[in-house]
Structure prediction request, 326 residues.
Amino acid sequence: MKVNRVMKMLRVGEWLFSKLPFLFLPILICINDFGSTKYQLLLCMAYFVYLFTFLGFGYAINDYSDREIDKKIGKTNVMGELSNWKCLSILILLVLGGAPFAAMIFSIPSLLLFVFVYFWGAAYSVRPFRFKEKGVAGLLVSSLAQRTIPLLPLLSISKNYWPIVCICGLSGFLVGLRYILIHQYEDIENDQFTGTNTYVKNHNHGISKMVYISFVIECVLVMALEIFFIKSIIGYALALLCVVQTFITYHTIQHIYRKKYFLSFICVPFEDMYNFYIPLSLLIGLACKNIIWVLPIAILVVISAKDMINKWKTAIFGVTHWRNHK
Prediction:
């Protein structure tokens, strides 16, 4: 199977920027606790493979479970084109592929959490659980399974991780909650056509308020992370830059595009903070001590480039529009 087809099958483009860098935050914040630079990089590589296989598994098993529903609306994906045994073989390989790398990072008891992580990654879409069609439970499982539960095995590495993992885990849950609400909001028509029951389809009112509250709590958690754990002038500067960008983008989408900023995937609020600015500030701090960390910076820039360019284009368009209509 060609690389492009594999990437499409795992829907890598949908989570490589929007989830992966954020899940790296706890490791990057505490990386200096792990001996030599060579070991630190090895740890990051193993953690990357663990996350890559898990996230790919979550999206692939969702597409496998939705094959019949997708056919009704004419939606195509790679898993829908493969036979049952090929799909199941791929899913098993993703689990087995991540296990050795998880074993390199986590203690033996916490490998039980590895099973726990994959179970919830599957339970969102697989019957008889299929939480995605169970209202509030669907929202909770989706948010926890992809952004919070994968962090739990990190608790076995160091006691220093507990407050950081708790803050990142709660932030991840709230971010995931916003994402799934927006996703269900944008998919209302398809869900009505296929008869798929989702929380937003059945409770359309009050969605905006839930997203607003989630975002406010996230802001408090990000401030706590920056002030008490990251404590970096570079981090403060990049966070301020993100706030300015977010404000301009909000004005552009609300008043020029005439769309609901908090219910749109055009520029999800603070997505850049979690997935680019905070990881970048941490990596720059590490690179100041050892030049080898320039390589992860380059990787972050490459995987973030398309999204960040589009977001800054939106912000620049807003500023240009405002100047031309003063």
User: Anything to note?
Assistant: The domain at 3-231 is CATH 1.10.600 (Farnesyl Diphosphate Synthase). The chain has two domains: 3-231, 234-326. The two ends are 55 Å apart (CA to CA).
